[in-house]
Structure formats: C-alpha cells, structure tokens
Amino acid sequence: MDIYEEKQIQELPLSVPLFRKKVESFLKTNGLRLEKVNLYMAIQDADESILAGGGLDGDTIKCIAVSEKARSGGLAVPLISRLISVAAQQGHTNVKVFTKPENTAIFESLGFTVLGRAPKAVLMENGRGLAAYLSGFPVKPGMTDGVIIMNANPFTIGHKYLIEKAAGQVDHLFVIVVKEDVSRFPYADRLAMTKAACAGFSNVTVCEGSDYQISAATFPTYFLKELSDASETQMRLDLDIFARHIAPALGATVRFVGSEPQDALTARYNAIMKEVLPAAGVQVVELPRLCYSELGEESPVSASAVRKGLDGFDGGFWHLLPETSLPYVLAEAAVTALRQELDTTPKPGLVDKEGNGAHRDMDYALMIRSIEALRPWFVRIAAHDGDLVSLGLEAEAAMLAATHGVNTHKGALFCLGLVLSATGKEGIPVRARIAEIALGIPETGRSKERGSVKGALAMAREGYKELFDKWLPELRTNGPLPTLMLIMASLDDTNILHRGGSEALAYVKARATDIYENGRIGIENEIIEFGRELKDRNLSPGGAADMLALTMLAAKIEK
Fold this sequence. Notes:
Helix content: 40-55%
Number of helices: 21
Structural class: alpha/beta
Radius of gyration: 28 Å
Strand order of the largest sheet: 1-2-3-4-5-7-6
C-alpha cells in the first residue's frame, strides 16, 4: 500500500495568512500561481508540508498540484474526487476544470470530457451542462443562420445597428448575451435590454448566455508559465468551444462582429476569429461600427463611452442609447450616484470609506447591499412600470430585507425615485415634471408637523429649485466635498432635527457655511474635524447625503 493513500484531505483556510503563504509557496514550487478560490483543500505529510492540493471556485476546480516527491502516490484522484463532492454539496452538478493539455488523461479517468482546446489550455467538464444548454437552442432547419455574441454592457444604438445589418444578411440571426456577471450591468439587465431592442426584428432570436462563453475576466491563468499568454489562450479556447459546440447546435454558418478601431484586445480577438472559424465551416463577417459626429470628428458608438459618462457629471451620453435601454441605464445612473455619495470621503457624521460616522447600525458593506437591493426597483420606476407610491413601498421593503431592518436609503429612495419617474416625458422639463408628480403625493402626518421646516416633499414640489440653481453648478465646478458643505449650509436636514433639534440644525448649518466659505484649501482636514464634532454629538446629516446623491444623479440625467 502506498504510504500516501491514508492521508486525510483537509481544508486550508486562505483567510489565515499562515495557510495562504503556505499554499502560495507550494504552488510556486510547482510552477503555478494562486488564484481566487472559495476553498483550498490539501493532503499533507507528517511534517505538515503539502503533498497535493487543489481549490474550488464555484463550479470550477483550480490550482491542482502534486509535489514532486508524491507524484507516484496517486494523490490527484482522491483530491479531485473530494473537490467534486464538495462542489456537489454546494449545488454544482457539473464541475469544470481549466488545466494544461498534459493533464487531460488524469481528468478523463475521473469522468471529465474535453469541451475545448487551445495550445496551452483545455476546458473539461464532468457532467452534461454544455449538452443541456445546447439542447435549448431554437434551431431553424434549412435556413442560413448567423450568430452574434455580445456583452451589451449596456445595449447601445451601436449594438442595434449591428443586429439590424447582420439580420439583413441571413435567414435567421441568433444573438447570445454573455452570461458571466463580471460586467457593470447585471446579466439580467443586459439580457432584458437586448430582448427589448430586438422585439421588432422578425428574424432575430435572443438566446440565453451560458458559462461556456469564456471571458478574460474569468479565464484562470494559474497554470500558464507566462501571463502574457493569457489573452491569446483565452481567446482561442473560447473560439474552439464556439466552433465545436455552439455553432453546430445553432446550425450557424456565419458569425458577425463589429469592427474594433479602439480596443486592441477586441481587435486581436476578431483577427483570431477570422483565422480559426472558417476552418470549422463558419464564415466571419466584420461589419463597420456605427459612428456619430462629435466636435467635427467621427467617433464609434461604444458602451464604454456610456459607462464613462455614468461616472461623470455632464450627462453627455444619452444619445448613444435606444429608448428600450433607458430604464436600465437610468437605474444604473441612480445606483452610481448612490455609490459615488457613499465613496465621497471624508463626510462628517456619515458612513464613508473610512468609517461609520455617527452611525452604530450602518457600515460601508451594509450600504452597498442596500444600494444593490434598490436596483431592480429603480428600473421599474424609470420604466413607469406601476404606481410610483406602490413601487416605492415595495422598494423600501426590499431595502429593509437586505439590511435586516436598518433604514439606510429611505430618503434617497424617495428623491431619486421621484427624479427617475420624472424622466422620459417628452416635452416636459424634468424640474416641472418633478413638481407635478410631487404635488400628487399626499403629505404624511410628520410632514405636516414640521411647520416652517422645508422637508423632502416640499423641496420636490418646488422642483428641487436649490439643487438645479446652486448645488448642481457647484458639483460640476468644484466637486463633491464643497457641494456637500454647500448643501449642509442651507438644507433643513430633518435627520439633524430628529437627533438634536433646532439648535443642532443651526450649529450644523453655521459650521458647514464656515467650511464652505473659508475652508476650500484645507477642506478635507476641516471636514474631518467637523466629523469628530458630529460623532461626539451623535448627529448625522443623512438628508444632506441624500441631496448629494440626488445632485449627482441630476448631473447625469439633466441633459
């Protein structure tokens, strides 16, 4: 009996620095690198040196290695079997592995089959996941079928133009949206945008994506000797899977791509596609990108321009989107504004990247969960998919479920939802529409009790006059921190009133005015000191935070 057969397989928690360094050293000795895994399991010798180890990232086995002295001990098989068992316990019935071509036989002995090959990598699977995915394709027999695979992050008029031109050259066109959720827009939103935009094409079918479209973001590189080989290997592996499996299942003989004048990696992918696919009987047709005139120059329409625009405060990207994409991009604009407000640091008395301010029940991670919980409701609000008050109440319930009852964004939900609802109304300026909608929202008992204090509903009924006239120009000229001080200097913040009364509100306004008018050069240090004062007094200007996020949203959608 081999001396290694009875060794126990144990998890080495990589969150512990000692174990992480140990695994990294073991892999380095075997010519590998540690990549992101959910867990790492190992067989160790009596002196606790690693004899064999392997990791699991979701449904994918990674970082498998056996030490040189144990390679005749047959340790790989029980280790891989354990990883498959753990994956099954986690609900993964199909387990994949990316590995070197020379390791193919080991995995074949455990029931894995090769899905795709590249000179320096293979992708294998031990179930029927790919076969099940392909069986759902709506094949059109006897037709000339084409296919486009797109990320649509987000779906632009450029994507729609590409689909229209491609659909005109084949009997039927299949559009597959990349499923991997490593993009800014969630897969569900990207798929919905694409389906909505293609609804008017009689010969276009939008297909679900799968884990079998391999992107550079998820392709593991731990087994490649040179990281410079990663992109080429990933591209060739992805195209081999397409040629072997996806194109035949669709009956596709043409693959369409848009020209790529800007991104070198995408241009290289297109070049490899023209080299690989014709040999498999698939013609590659590269169509010119749709361009728009800007500053006298022709620029290609790109999703990256929309993403870049969402991060800024000038709103100059909406012309790149079809109407069907607007609810999803407006929702992303709201989510981005909330994240930008959260990331603005330092903020006195508020949660930011450095601390929790005057809050004991909130932190950065909780705020992020809250923001993401609101995303689907922002989509529905922007699409006018139901009564605004009802949608708001449902969104609030989703927020509270995500935060275990902590009110993180109730005020922000009200004002951002109101502005999203006011967009997309042809011929009505946003400010007028905001006021019109707000007038239809009944006052609550709390709103009536505030007397001369101007609350959120009263500001909305004025069309957020101060925001558009003062705060928005300040944001575009001087950035978030001066804008926050300007807001705090003038806002009747009901959060401050609730915690400290009118005296506290007067103090906060006066202190913020002083910092805004006199502290521009050393504003961060002044705000840090202000934050200490608010924390000591248990004051949090949550209303000002909501108005900063709203100003950031307005900056994106005003145009």
